[in-house]
Structure formats: structure tokens, C-alpha cells
Write a structure and sequence with these properties.
By secondary structure, the protein is mainly beta. The protein has a single domain, classed as Beta Barrel (Porin), CATH 2.40.160.20. 8% of the residues lie in helices and 68% in strands. It is built from one helix and nine strands. A hairpin with a 5-residue loop joins strand 8 and strand 9. The chain starts with a helix and ends with a strand.
Length: 260
């Protein structure tokens, strides 16, 4: 998926540069409002750590032998690369001063990240009921993405600009934990984050006086989420269980803009 996206964007870059050399080679005015659509893909990576405390009398502890913290902790990454489709509509405004282009841009659309992980391992110390192993799981998902960014660019030739961009990103990044063992202890908890950040670079070329083609790369960091639930067994003993998760993604996309 990553190689295919790279090739698509590379072709788009070559195409826009070639087209821009022929259209409005002498002059072009970028100032004004514009809107358009982009399509592309993303590769992502999630890292997470699951851990539990051992309060006196907690489920994971016995009075004589507290459970070592490492016995209920596991650092597990989802597959090192996963892919997702992204499609969005955008709107922005350019101011032009000589060869310098700058202004705000915002986009909103579909962003489909979904992943799960599970791990099963043994307790390193006895727990009430003599249970020796447990199963912990995690699921994460997003369905949409909104970014609000600033762009600063430079006209390579009048009809072609290259730019850098950075700003805020908002999404419904949700993480849900689950836990169970043979004695009937269980837990489920979830939390949702909405704000992250993004930065990247791209190029845009005028195809006609009103239409332009763009290709763009964005790095997306959705931040870290901490999900804490309570593991409880049938006897009423309980313990806190926390998973800290972080997601980062690389987005490649291309699209068309119409300048009003």
C-alpha cells in the first residue's frame, strides 16, 4: 500500500510540474478563495502499554505476595504498518505577495483507521482463586478527520507553487480495553480523543485560470490516550487496569481545487 501511494503521488508531482510549465507560464494570480476535493491513503502505527497497580487487598495481589508490576504489564504494538483510505473536501484562501503565497486551509472527510490486538499471558504470582493466566485486548478506530492548517508557499514558476503546512487535526480516535481470566474477572473501558496535530508539504499547479491540481504529504499525530478501567472478580475484589496508546500516520493524497 505504501509503495503504491508513493508511486501515485510521484506521478502526480511530475504531472503537476509538467502542466504548470505550459499553463500561464508568464503570469498567474493565486490570491482568492478556493475549494476542492482530495483522495489518498495513509499508513499508520499504534504503540500501546498495558499496566496495573497492586493496591493492598486488590484482585491482582495476595496479602503475602504482592504481584510484581511487570507480571501484568505488556508493551505491544499493532502491526508495524496498516493502511487506510482518506477522502475529503477542502476550502482555503491565498494571499500573494510577489513569489510568496500564504493563507489558511481546512478540510474534512472520511478517515478509516481500525485495528485490534490481543495478548494472553500468565500471572507471575498467585492471585485469588489460583488463576494463572489472563487475556487482555484493545481495539481502536477513527471514522473522520478534520484539519485546520496554515500554508506558506513559493512560486517555482508563476503557475506552480511548493508549500509547507501545519496545524491542528480533529478526529474520533477511540480506544477500548478488555480483560478476562478463568476465574471470571473482567473489565471493559473506552475513551475518545478529538485533537491532534499535523504538518507536511506539497505542490500545486494551475491547469487553467480557475482549476489547479495538488499533491500533498501530511504527518499526523493523534497524541496519546490513557484508558483506565476496573477489573472485578465475582468475589468483589478489584484492581485498576490502564492502557496508554499513541497513533501516528503518514498521509499521501492528491486532488483538484477550483479558484473562485
Amino acid at each position: 500500500m505504501a509503495r503504491l501511494l508513493s508511486r501515485v503521488v510521484a506521478v502526480a508531482f511530475v504531472s503537476v510540474l509538467g502542466a504548470g510549465a505550459e499553463v500561464h507560464a508568464q503570469s498567474y494570480e493565486w490570491t482568492g478563495i478556493y475549494g476542492g476535493v482530495t483522495l489518498g491513503g495513509s499508513v499508520y502505527h499504534l504503540s500501546s502499554t498495558t499496566s496495573a497497580s497492586c493496591p493492598p487487598g486488590g484482585y491482582f495481589c495476595t496479602p503475602a505476595s504482592p504481584l510484581n508490576a511487570s507480571s501484568i504489564a505488556s508493551t505491544v504494538s499493532l502491526p508495524s504498518s496498516g493502511s487506510a483510505f482518506i477522502g475529503s473536501g477542502e476550502v482555503g484562501y491565498n494571499w500573494q505577495y510577489g513569489d510568496l503565497i500564504f493563507g489558511p486551509e481546512a478540510d474534512a472527510g472520511y478517515f478509516n483507521l481500525h485495528g485490534t490486538r490481543q495478548f494472553s499471558t500468565k500471572y507471575l504470582a498467585a492471585v485469588p482463586g489460583g488463576t494463572k493466566s489472563y487475556l487482555a485486548g484493545e481495539e481502536f478506530s477513527t471514522d473522520w478527520l478534520i484539519t485546520a492548517r496554515g500554508r506558506v508557499g513559493y512560486t517555482v514558476i508563476p503557475a506552480v507553487i511548493v508549500y509547507v503546512t501545519a496545524g491542528l487535526a480533529a478526529t474520533d480516535f477511540t480506544v477500548q480495553n478488555s480483560f478476562s481470566d478463568a476465574s471470571g474477572a473482567n473489565e471493559s473501558a473506552s475513551v475518545t480523543s478529538h485533537i491532534g496535530w499535523t504538518a507536511g508539504a506539497g505542490t500545486e499547479v494551475a491547469l487553467t485560470r480557475n482549476w489547479s491540481l495538488k499533491a500533498e504529504y501530511l504527518f499526523l499525530d493523534l497524541g496519546s490516550l490513557s484508558v483506565t478501567g476496573t477489573v472485578t472478580n465475582p468475589a468483589g475484589l478489584s484492581n485498576g487496569l490502564t492502557t496508554a496508546s499513541a497513533v501516528q500516520a503518514h498521509i499521501l493524497r492528491a486532488g483538484f481545487n477550483y479558484r473562485f
